[in-house]
Each structure stands twice: as C-alpha cells, then as structure tokens.
Write a structure and sequence with these properties.
This protein has 167 residues and is an alpha+beta fold. It folds into 2 domains: 50 residues, Winged helix-like DNA-binding domain superfamily/Winged helix DNA-binding domain (Arc Repressor Mutant, subunit A); 73 residues, Alpha-Beta Plaits (2-Layer Sandwich), CATH 3.30.70.920. The protein is built from 5 helices and 4 strands. Strands 2-3-1-4 form a 4-stranded antiparallel sheet, covered by helices on one side. The two termini are 23 Å apart. The C terminus is likely disordered.
Length: 167
C-alpha cells in the first residue's frame, strides 16, 4: 500500500485519526482491528504518513484536572483595543500566560475567548492582574466553569457515515 504525501485522508486515515484522537495508547494491532487494516506495520506507516502530511501532530496525555488539583476552570472573554495587528500582538501575550488551555479569536463584541484552568481563585486572580496590565485589552469578563459536561474532543469532528465506519 503506497500513500502519496500530498493526498488528502482516505477512509482508513479518517478512521485511524478518530481512533487516535479517542485513545492514542492503543497498539497498532488494536488500531488495525478497529479500522479494518490487519497489518500492524501498515498502521505504523499510516501514522507516520499522517504526521508527515500535517494531519496530526503529537500525542498527548489527557490529564485528570481534579487529581492534578486544577479545580478552578474559567472562560475569559477579552475585548481588545482595536489597532494595527492587535489580534496577533494580544494573542501572543495571552499565549504566554500560565494556565491557558486555548485561545480563540472570534467575531462579535468580544475579540477572544480564552479557556484556562487554575488551582484556586487566588491563583486565577494573580493572572487577572496580568491581564489588567496589558495595554491591548479594553476589558475582560470571566466566567467560572462549575461543571464540565463535555470537554473539547476533536475525535467528534471526524464524521463518517455508519456504512463506512466500523465504530
């Protein structure tokens, strides 16, 4: 089986990506059985190809935030001060703050939606002070997350019809 590096993902690539996004600790044999390719070496080659083609990058552990004592998750809504390159400038500053999980530049009356997690309110307030010191920020509005119903999960972005997917 030969895969072109410039080609888009085929059905087996999509199945493999979904499995890896769900549980990357599975062996190549386990992955193969789930996606319909029964050669562990073929799975290994596909995983390497997915990385080379930029379809996936790295494998991460899923942290248990409660056991890691990260009990203060927040959503911070940020309105920037409009100016030349303010999105890039402010985005770079926000990325450097501790506890930041993700940052999204969005449309509407706010400019950024920031997800972050801290050990407690005091730790969050120390970050809030840093936000106040950023001249590119007009205002912020923070919401504490009380309960995570469903966390961010890219595996659900891969939509395959039931007839194509053995999952």
């Amino acid at each position: 089986m030969r895969m072109r590096k410039d080609s888009g993902p085929d059905i087996f690539d999509l199945r493999l990506l979904k499995q890896l996004a769900t549980d990357a600790s599975q062996s190549n044999s386990q992955l193969g059985k789930k996606i319909g390719i029964f050669s562990a070496s073929a799975i290994s080659k596909r995983k390497k190809s997915l990385g080379e083609r930029g379809l996936m990058g790295g494998i991460r552990a899923s942290l248990n935030v409660e056991k890691c004592d990260l009990n203060y998750p927040v959503v911070i809504l940020v309105r920037g001060k409009y100016g030349l390159n303010y999105v890039e400038t402010l985005g770079e500053k926000l990325k450097k703050l501790p506890g930041i999980l993700s940052i999204y530049n969005v449309s509407g009356d706010i400019d950024f939606v920031v997800f972050a997690v801290y050990r407690n309110r005091t730790e969050y307030l120390s970050i809030l002070d840093k936000l106040y010191d950023m001249e590119e920020i007009e205002r912020t509005d923070t919401r504490q997350i009380y309960k995570i119903i469903k966390d961010f999960d890219y595996s659900n972005a891969i939509n395959l019809t039931d007839s194509l997917s053995p999952m």
